[in-house]
Amino acid sequence: xxxxxxxxxxxxxxxxxxxxxxxxxxxxxxxxxxxxxxxxxxxxxxxxxxxxxxxxxxxxxxxxxxxxxxxxxxxxxxxxxxxxxxxxxxxxxxxxxxxxxxxxxxxxxxxxxxxxxxxxxxxxxxxxxxxxxxxxxxxxxxxxxxxxxxxxxxxxxxxxxxxxxxxxxxxxxxxxxxxxxxxxxxxxxxxxxxxxxxxxxxxxxxxxxxxxxxxxxxxxxxxxxxxxxxxxxxxxxxxxxxxxxxxxxxxxxxxxxxxxxxxxxxxxxxxxxxxxxxxxxxxxxxxxxxxxxxxxxxxxxxxxxxxxxxxxxxxxxxxxxxxxxxxxxxxx
Length: 332
Hints:
globular
């Protein structure tokens, strides 16, 4: 257990160092975030704030994981490979997207079709590694102990979970510290769940990786809380979403992800509802989506919105842990 505290502290410190080194470089390269025309008035002060800040927690996480492997503190197994593969793959998609936006000086990065093709490829490799590890393509609801082998359809299920989670985290990344703080809460919750999933091969290695990421993400928040000195960009948000999704799939807690990521789910659902409603009526159901911007439109302070959403995320995660305790009581 002590190693978890060590990796959290180490990754936090390395993340802080990375931030101090990276931010001046990104400013010099003019890697600025392009602000949406709908938010130019409210977020005028955010102009010229660099993006691709996800590197601040991605690089330390990977470096420390490699060092732990070299020191034989963790083992590289299929469980860890799957999660790290998703983490790196989605961060690369996000990096390419951010790079194109910076190069074009607008919000036109990768097209939706390009992103979809890349994510389908990732899902196929994920499914292959998942089966190679000896896992069955089971749809598993722990509460009622429902298990059903759905065969190749599980590959589509994996794609939907990855797509939904990564895009939900991406949509939530619109206010200083919002997505980062919620991800710290969600990842910490999943870290506790994985630590208690002793039937999973390599569960302790995955636990250490998750808490390494949590520590690095806390370091990133040092620079990202209001007023933000840097934004994580798609590089960071897609990487975080991929770890949440892949961990949920590996531990067979895909449905629990809906509770743990409750704020992420609401952000995505309200955006989808808004788009459908606008297409049908040419009117807006909400003042603006993602929903955190609707609170801004109503005059709520950005910091207060972030704190409110953090609290909701924390309550949702605590409910998920209570659910886990109930499952444990039922089992024993």
